[in-house]
Every structure is written in structure tokens, then in C-alpha cells.
Amino acid sequence: MKKILIIFLTISFLILINCGKSKSMEIIPEPVVDQVSIISDEICLDSILWVFPANPCISVKGEKDNTTLKTRYYLVYNLSSFDVEFPVGISMQLGTSYNNLLKVSTEYGATLQLISEIPESLISTILNSDKILLSYTNRKETRNIELSAGDRSDLKDYLTKISSQLKSEPKLKIVK
Question: In a 3-state reduction of DSSP, which class is residue 162?
């Protein structure tokens, strides 16, 4: 009986961890830099038993310039293990075509974070793609990870939500 109870509690704990992941987005007014940013939750591409997040994780970031009302979209690639090689960039294979994303910034800290711009023209291709493969390249090697159906769905959902949220976000009233 004790073994069954321990197994039940363990499974319940694992389910709670996985289900506790929120699917919300953080909206950040940034009046000093005259923009509004929205950041999605992370999508961890190599989870263990679909529960424990692993390496690497991606998220989507959208920015709306307050003066021109222009929107930009970014893929944020987080690599939690230390990569000693110089990161070159991220490519995205959509169907049979590869698209090199423009690297905007690289941040070193507890994680390596590569931020690459997603051109607006590429968003509709992502939303209609049945196959998405990410390629992370450093000066030594390239790592290819094909997104699962669930990861593709999350990525498409985040892009759609961020796009509609940025369009409906009112212009910031900034007193200078």
C-alpha cells in the first residue's frame, strides 16, 4: 500500500509541475526607451519525460515602437549549459527552406542568450509551416533541433497572440 501511495504522490507531483507552466505573456511598458515589449513563456525543446525543462529553451519577444508604431519580433534562444565556443547565429528551416535570422544581441550570464530578429515577412510562413527546425551554430558546430508538434503549436500560438496584442496595445502617454 505504501508503494502505491508513493508512486501516486510522485506521479501527482510530476503532473503538477508540468501543468503549473503558465501560458501567459508578460507585457512591459518601457517609457524610457519609448516602446512596449511582450515576452512569451519559454518553450523548452528537449524536455525529459515532458516534465523537466532541458536545453535549449526559446521564447518569442515582440516590441512596438511608441513613436513610429512599428513592430518587431524576436526569437530568444536560451542555452543553459555553458558554451565555450563563440555563437554565430540561429537559422530556421521552414518546410524545405532555411532562413538565417539576424542576430541582434548575445548575452552571457547564467545562460547564453541569443536574440535574433524574425522578419515580419517570415511570420506568416512560420504560422503555415508543418515542419520547423532550429539550427544553432557556434564556430565549432551546428546543433539542429526539430520542433515537435506541441512546440510548433506553442510557437505559432505565441506569435499570433503577441502580434494581436501589440496591434491592440494603446500608444504610451509619456510626459517629457
Answer: helix
